[in-house]
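User: We ran a pulldown and think these components assemble together. Before we commit to crystallization trials, I'd like a predicted model of the whole complex to look at. Sequences follow.
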Amino acid sequence: MSVENIKIGMLGLGTVGRGVYRIITGNGENIKRKIGAGLEIKKILVRDLNRDRGVELDQQLLTGEINDIMEDPEIKIVIEVMGGIEPTLDFVQQALQNGKSVVTANKDMIAVYGKQLFELAEANRADLLFEASVAGGIPIIRPLKQCLAANRINQVIGIINGTTNYMLTKMTKEGSDFAEVLREAQDKGYAEANPASDIEGYDAARKLAILASIAFNSRVVLDDVYTEGITKITATDISYAGELNYTVKLLGIAKETEEGVEVRVHPTLIPVDHPLAAVNDVFNAIFVSGDAVGDTMFYGRGAGELPTASAVVSDAMDAARDLLRNVPGIISCTCYDEKPVKDMGLVESRYYIRIQVSDKPGVLASIAYAFSDKEVSLATVLQKQTDAVTAEIVLVTHKVREKNMQEALEIIKHLSSVKAISNVIRVEGD
Amino acid sequence: MSVENIKIGMLGLGTVGRGVYRIITGNGENIKRKIGAGLEIKKILVRDLNRDRGVELDQQLLTGEINDIMEDPEIKIVIEVMGGIEPTLDFVQQALQNGKSVVTANKDMIAVYGKQLFELAEANRADLLFEASVAGGIPIIRPLKQCLAANRINQVIGIINGTTNYMLTKMTKEGSDFAEVLREAQDKGYAEANPASDIEGYDAARKLAILASIAFNSRVVLDDVYTEGITKITATDISYAGELNYTVKLLGIAKETEEGVEVRVHPTLIPVDHPLAAVNDVFNAIFVSGDAVGDTMFYGRGAGELPTASAVVSDAMDAARDLLRNVPGIISCTCYDEKPVKDMGLVESRYYIRIQVSDKPGVLASIAYAFSDKEVSLATVLQKQTDAVTAEIVLVTHKVREKNMQEALEIIKHLSSVKAISNVIRVEGD
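Assistant: Here's a predicted model for the assembly, 860 residues in total across the polymer chains.
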């Protein structure tokens, strides 16, 4: 063990923590040659000292006592992979206060408490790195902060939840229903027993808040993000979408507009020839448009032991490099602006709408009239007989404000010939 | 003009130079807020002081005298966008010797003289940044050096020449012939009057040498790269490829194997559902596989005024940040290893082969025998009548060494029933 090793304290040893341990020990020689010093895990905080960790390690590394890490001046970097807010936030704050650099994979924490943490990091001249918090191993935080820094970013559109992308891909390829695919995803371990965070869009919303903050240099928090999940997506909608040359994805969409920053997560129809349309299964991708670079996309695995650990360890290598040169915090918080978050009612989008109606004359006219009255203009109309007395109408609109759309839908819902508005899905990327 | 401005000397004011000037002046306020100091172009070296540059600028900025930049101690960063080797290499060496950080878009120079230049940069504690030299605005150099640093990279496969990708896309979508598409690309300004560098694969080979050096931490130079262009690709091959569920792309392929580093540029069949298959027109993409992160891909515009300038200015911002913290050269050359370059004869690949034969009994048997004699095993065989006396045989092989394939082809070429081997194209990505 060389004297130049940089000592690390780890909080947590779950899936990602195990991956971090494996990479740091298994790839140690290369890491050392790349940064000029070795990385050494000195202590790992765990709740249960005796649990089998699925990885061979020196039991002496484990501790149940947070102060073994916080009060050890030799430990320069804290890797936080325990997740959650309580007591994680306290631990991370304490580490920064003690001048330790922090690497975290914790989107829940960064999406809500980012501002406080960055201020603390800056005040204590410490690195706070969080590449792993968004889209697992895909490099996106540093590319936005550095490689694309010369740009004004106009929009970030991402498939940033692997579970729902797996489910939608299955539904698209096999025509299967939501409930069936969810069960399958749970069996495979892609979806949790309580899948709400994924299927209701909250996980994607956290990541989108982080991405938007960096892309637009203005703090966006979880509460700012309009969020809709995929639970109402049916095989029928996916089939119609295909007929219209679209595919259905759960997208996180962030745009900078004159009326403020737009941040929303919802199922979306995108054209089949859009680069995001080809991103299938558990893969993630983030599509970024800048005023100079144009359209770019970053693709890869958004979760999993080793992909996420890849980002964590790469961040730790950067933190170590900064420590060796005595410049921790060289790139800190980039939210130097305070841009308003745009009201959802003002957001402009195209819409796909599926409506059940009585199959009699004048129905389409009354629906079309309600739309035009609210300045909603129609681009495509499909009408199909479903049984002797019911027809299904599928519409795609031109761009219109959310507020107008909701008002039009409110009127249409109450038309006597309308039996049900089966679905309303936004359309993006034309 | 604030005292904290970082002064820049620019070499060249062509297409990319104009883009750099536009971004630095047009986006100056944001750049300043991101790095804590403004970027200021103090001098620009041009050959002709009176030429119209297509951009409004103070004529006082222009100079025909290189020493106005090299000997100005106020100039801390040199942006090289004049291209070529002579006299560029001298200028860049001089800048580094004078302790100036250098940002360059010059793949020709880096792919051949990288080693000398990095040594010079290190000796003089200067940054030498070259993100723009590969794939224009797409972040790939820094992601490989930093974001994926924890990985052992196994392979890098890229569509890294926009001109040929545009041409192949056209040929695929419209069934048009090579010559016709080349004329069209020249008319549109996508291909140069002398298109050899693009269509013969040399441009891609330079970029691949740079990518492989970084990915495998071992210097690879242009001469190491086996290079084949797209001139022999016909509409017929593309059509057969489609029938077999492949698409044809000019790929740069770099792999680390036990027998050394494999680096090759050639037209390639890849499966239509491979992420690279959907990369069309002038877009570029680099597919990177690491032991921890798995498969990732970086997509965007590989050339053009503003996309390339996006990478140049972002690099200049990093150089400025390093200067402000007094750590230029914090990430320098990462070629700490010396791995052998694998002999092309040892490379393993699958192959697509199209052969014209006399349409009589026993022909296929004699061909199949020649292949099996050289241990080439066949995966797919298509045979089609082309006229009364000729048939066309299309074969796809399993993986086999290049050497065996060439030996088998040598025998087949001389079989009495074989009229011509029309094409041999490697297959990748299954």
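Chain B has three domains: 6-137+305-324, 141-301, 345-427. That may be worth checking against your pulldown data before setting up trials.

User: Thanks, that helps.
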